[in-house]
Amino acid sequence: MVYLVYDGSFEGFFSAVFDVYERKLEPVQIFRQDVQIPALFAERIESFTDHKKSLRVAEKIASLTGDQGIDLLWKCYLSEITGIENDMLGAIRYLLKAGKDVFSDYGDPYVLTLRQTEKKIRRERHRMTAFVRFQLGADELFYAFIEPDFDVIPLIVSHFKGRYADQRWLIYDLKRKYGIYYDLKEVNFVSPETDNPATSSGILELQEEETLYQLLWKDYFKSTNIQARKNMKLHLQHVPKRYWKYLTEKS
């Protein structure tokens, strides 16, 4: 067994796929470099990200599936599920062998896994657009902290930019230590190392009015709750408990 290790980027994955075909590696599995892989009776090869190689793979896939195929693979990549790269590789191999779009063939185990993963990603994206709660900081910046199961921040950019275009905001993923910052003109990806006003400690200081707004929201939430119709099982299905700590009405 050959373990092909890449840098964890989407472009790096496509470069690894190119290497699989160029080097005729078989059997082979692709893993991110930060994933612990078994070393016994295995050959470890490092795949370096190469823009030209990545582009050739992307263009070939797009020629058979259109942008939908790239989008499917992109969303599965964002799932960060250990080993998802090998399901992606399996689906790509099936695609190239068939010479036509097979990403709707649910009879193939690799394609089925990708479609099931895509469904999970869509669900998590929807939850993030519904469960994000902004707080107004002392520096007039609205900010929100999230910890989604999957890396869905790239998928929620357009939603929040379109909906909150008249205010500065930051959405920060505590689990992955990066976020998106909107400065009334454009959205930028930021991290603690980024020299950006959105990452200053000032955002942690709430405006005086914000505390009052939060109390009013909690009172409204409580007053509209009908105890006689309370169904906690159904409630947990729609609002899982792992999201509660970032919901104002649940704190």
In short:
This protein is of the alpha/beta class and 251 residues long. Helices cover 45% and strands 14% of the residues. The strands form two sheets. It has a five-stranded mixed beta sheet, covered by helices on one side. A three-stranded parallel beta sheet has the order 2-1-3.
Q: Return residue spans where pLDDT drops below 50 for at least 5 consecutive residues.
A: 195-203
Number of domains: 2
Give the terminus-to-terminus CA distance. 50 Å
Helix content: 40-55%
Main β-sheet description: 5 strands, mixed
Strand content: 5-15%
In total, the number of strands is 8
Number of helices: 8
Please explain how this structure is put together:
With 251 residues, this protein is of the alpha/beta class. The protein folds into 2 domains: 2-123, no CATH class; 132-250, no CATH class. 45% of the residues lie in helices and 14% in strands. The chain contains 8 helices and 8 strands, in the order E-H-E-E-H-H-H-H-E-E-H-E-E-E-H-H. It has helices at residues 10-22, 51-65, 67-78, 84-98, 109-131, 153-163, 208-224, 232-238, and strands at residues 2-6, 28-32, 43-46, 135-136, 142-146, 169-173, 178-182, 187-190. The strands form 2 sheets. The chain has a 5-stranded mixed sheet, with helices on one face. Strand 4 (135-136) and strand 5 (142-146) form a beta hairpin. Helix 1 crosses helix 2 and helix 4 (84-98) packs across helix 5 (109-131). Residues 195-203 have low confidence and may be disordered.
